[in-house]
Design brief:
The chain has about 300 residues and is mainly β. It has a single domain, classed as Neuraminidase (6 Propeller). The chain has 2 helices and 22 strands.
Length: about 300
């Protein structure tokens, strides 16, 4: 998968490949669902994951990943690319009672060849995303600011965050940025940068045992990651794990979300919706090793929450 070749080259582990896909293309505006809830009219899932918006967001023959909703749940941004193709950010907006047909965003207007993994800030005024070159180098955080019904020119984030290769950035509600950092093949870590009046002048490592594609809960009470299954050494697929924050600010060991979320296929790229109700992730269960976007009630996280962390 072209948009993650730089990860493969650095890590030499295909289990870290990320992307997604789903049902057939060809949806037209007139065929998009009339809204019954903020999530494309989809019936809300319970504790069993469901394929998200097949034929609209999730398309057969294409990876989709890194999905993010606006705080009012009336806009969605996500990454997509065909196998070996260029990574793009797509978006759709709720207009009246229907969602618009997904279109490419092209935030950098060609300045960077590939864009992926958008994250909409909690005030809805900024989108952070990863942009990089066609040769899979210079993977950095960029951002755009809202200008009425459109977005500003894209700018590279001025921060020590961008001193290394990075991917999968997202924010807590207080604006702290979390992301996966790659300095070399043997040095992959989860970092965070505290929000200092909208700036990110310093970075810190998050001390967890393992995991990439970290996604911080809005309140920072837990951190989601994916990693190769640790409970069965014969398995090579990725599972989603959660770390809970201790009172002293340290993190518990990663806890597998269990069979209700994880399967023998790879699960990656976890994210939580702004309302805190749903967990989204990618599952590599499509023919040809492609992945689809799934969603499930965030209650699955509470199901594995240690007694000492029960609310």
């Amino acid at each position: 998968m072209r948009n993650y070749n730089f990860i493969v080259a650095l890590l030499a582990l295909s289990v870290f490949l990320i992307a997604c896909t789903s049902k057939k293309q060809g949806s037209k505006d007139s065929n998009l669902p009339t809204i019954e809830n903020p999530y494309f009219g989809q019936k809300a899932p319970g504790l069993t994951p469901k394929l998200f918006a097949p034929g609209v967001i999730s398309l057969n023959g294409r990876y989709e990943y890194g999905i993010s909703f606006s705080p009012d749940l009336d806009e969605v941004y996500y990454s997509g690319n065909k196998k070996g193709g260029v990574a793009d950010i797509y978006f759709s907006k709720l207009e009246g009672k229907k969602w618009t047909h997904p279109k490419k965003a092209n935030f950098t207007k060609g300045e960077k060849e590939e864009e992926m993994q958008p994250f909409v800030s909690f005030n809805g005024n900024t989108i952070y995303f990863v942009a990089y070159n066609a040769d899979n180098t210079d993977s950095k955080i960029w951002y755009v600011n809202r200008l009425g019904d459109s977005w500003s020119d894209a700018k590279r984030l001025e921060s020590p965050i961008n001193n290394d290769e990075i991917f999968y950035q997202n924010q807590a509600k207080n604006g702290d940025l979390f992301y996966t950092n790659i300095t070399d093949i043997r040095n992959i870590k989860i970092n965070y940068a505290p929000n200092k009046n909208g700036k990110y002048p310093e970075v810190h490592e998050v001390d967890i045992d393992f995991g990439i594609h970290a996604f911080i809960a809005p309140s920072q009470e837990y951190l989601l990651v994916n990693a190769r299954n640790k409970e069965d050494k014969t398995r090579k697929d990725n599972d989603i794990y959660v770390c809970f924050k201790e009172k002293d600010g340290t993190w518990t060991k990663p806890i597998n979300l269990g069979d209700s979320v994880n399967s023998t296929f790879g699960e990656t790229c976890p994210s939580i919706t702004p309302d805190g109700k749903y967990l989204f992730f990618s599952r590599y269960n499509e023919e040809g090793g492609l992945s689809n976007i799934y969603w499930v009630s965030a209650e699955v996280i509470n199901k594995v929450r240690p007694v000492d962390f029960k609310k």
